[in-house]
Amino acid sequence: MGLSGGREYLAIPGPSVMPEEVLRAMHRAAPNIYEGELHELTHSLIPDLKYVAQTEGHATIYIANGHGAWEAALANVAGPDDRLLMPATGRFGHGWAEMAEGLGADVELIDFGRAAPLDPDRVEEALRADKDRKIKAVIATHVDTSSSVLNDMAGLRAAIDAAGHPALLMADCIASMGCDRFEMDAWGVDVAVAASQKGLMVPPGLGLVFFNDRAAEVRKNMQRVSRYWDWLPRANPEIYYQYFGGTAPTHHLYGLRAALDMIRAEGIEPIWARHERHARAIWAACEAWGQGGPLRLNIADRAHRSRAVTSLRIGLPHGPRLRKWVEKHAGLTLGIGLGMSEEGDPSGGGFFRLGHMGHVNAQMIMGLLGGIETAFVALDVPHGKGALEAAAVELAAV
Ligand SMILES: *Cc1c(COP(=O)(O)O)cnc(C)c1O
Question: Among 203, 284, 329, 396, which residue has the fewest nearby CB atoms (within 10 Å)?
């Protein structure tokens, strides 16, 4: 007997679940890209994107995944031999730093490992040591999707200011935007990057870069910026073509319009609160399971856990068996562990991740947890009791 008929749930940290509204909006004939509805629709996206990022600054859209958004942001502020400081947590900070090195930048890396948040004091020290004020920007990951650590961006801004350093603060919000609280202007973030396929609920393909006037000044002093990545024409298009430096990502724009309508209708504060509540339910269940078995949350301190993604360790042989079981028998796909062990080390299979970003509600969270509990029973994985009850208590407290 199979139990996986019915709608599947892709609970990986992106691409996330796409709402019917988004899918329906995209299901249409190609629009005219030269005039009419598509132009009006594109203009209308900008203020709503800024609302999601909580900024009065500028918003630009690239046809790209998150890696493209990384490069877009860097290409506007850092050229060959420019210095950047990256306090890296988990895997994704290293990825952005490598992208910067590919552009010729000189990156100073402070590595905080795979299970801890960055420490703003260490960043302050590094900035104080930069007597000639050569570091152009501090680049950091808000939520690292591999370790599921949540970093303190406002604390990072305070560290930069305490050091009296002019460096820009650039944040990778690809995993967090629309899930974990993020307030670009209030927190003093100068550049933020995001992508369509996580909290924004749209298929992969749109990279978003937000920047303020301080960052725009740095861009103006660059000797040259690649035409495609240059954010100036995109943020201030005189003709429609400049929004995308070529053909518009037509269907993604319809999808994004539908997603932003949903975000506006729910409101960003309630969206953050919903993610918070779901995350607490997941943490409560995982902590209960851990009482009687090998499951552990990767980030021990709740204050440093993301509300969008949860990284877990269960060891071998349980990890791969669990993921296979829920996929085959429950219609549920869990995320693989990423960057939590050295490449090629088989123990990496003992890690897995739960994506709980975007279009997710309480019954999906309970289904996710119930699916895992069922696999534990089926596979005889030792686990503590009362996990679903503990999750229910969190969700009931609305
Ligand atoms: C997903 C993600 C990326 C990479 O995005 P792609 O679309 O896969 O290129 C970068 N940073 C973070 C924090 C992410 O979650």
Answer: 396
Listing DSSP states for 139-196 in one string gives EEESEETTTTEE--HHHHHHHHHHTT---EEEEE-TTTTTTS---TTTTT-SEEEEET
On whether residue 7 sits in a domain, the answer given is no
Task: Please report, for the domain that includes residue 52, its CATH number.
Answer: 3.40.640.10
User: 114, 308 in Cβ contact below 8 A?
Assistant: no
What is the Cα–Cα distance from 186 to 169, expressed in whole angstroms? 13
Query: If you count them, how many residues does the chain have?
Result: 398
Nearest CA to ligand 1 atom 8: 66
364 plus 261 within the same structural domain: no
Cα separation, 56 vs 186, whole angstroms: 10
Q: What is the Å distance from ligand 1's center to 342 Cα?
A: 19
Say whether both 105 and 130 belong to one domain.
Answer: yes
The answer on 279 and 255 residing in a single domain is no
For residues 48 and 53, give the distance between their C-alpha atoms in angstroms, rounded to a whole number.
9
Residues 142 and 288 in one domain: no
CATH number at residue 372: 3.90.1150.10
Q: Which residues pair with 353 in a beta bridge?
A: 311, 335
pTM for the model stands at: 0.97
Integer Cα distance of 2 and 152 in angstroms:
45
Q: Domain range holding 291?
A: 267-396
Ligand 1 centre distance from Cα of residue 259 (Å): 19
Pairing relationship of beta strands 106-111 and 83-88 according to DSSP bridges = parallel
- Could you read off the pLDDT of 172-187 as tens digits, one per residue? 999 999 999 999 999 9
Same domain flag for 67 and 152: yes
Instruction: Give the Cα separation of 274 and 197 in Å (integer).
Output: 18
Residue nearest to atom 2 of ligand 1 (CA): 174
Q: Which residues line ligand 1 (CB under 6 A)?
A: 14, 65-67, 92, 141, 143, 145, 172, 174-175, 195, 204
Phi-psi region of 323 (alpha: psi -120 to 50; beta: other; left: phi over 0): alpha
- Of the pLDDT bands very low, low, confident and very high (cuts 50, 70, 90), residue 280 is very high
Q: Tell whether 320 and 385 lie within a shared domain.
A: yes
Find out whether 133 is annotated in a ligand binding site: no
In this structure, the answer to whether residues 288 and 226 fall within a common structural domain is no
The alpha carbon of 303 and the centre of ligand 1 are apart by a number of angstroms equal to 22
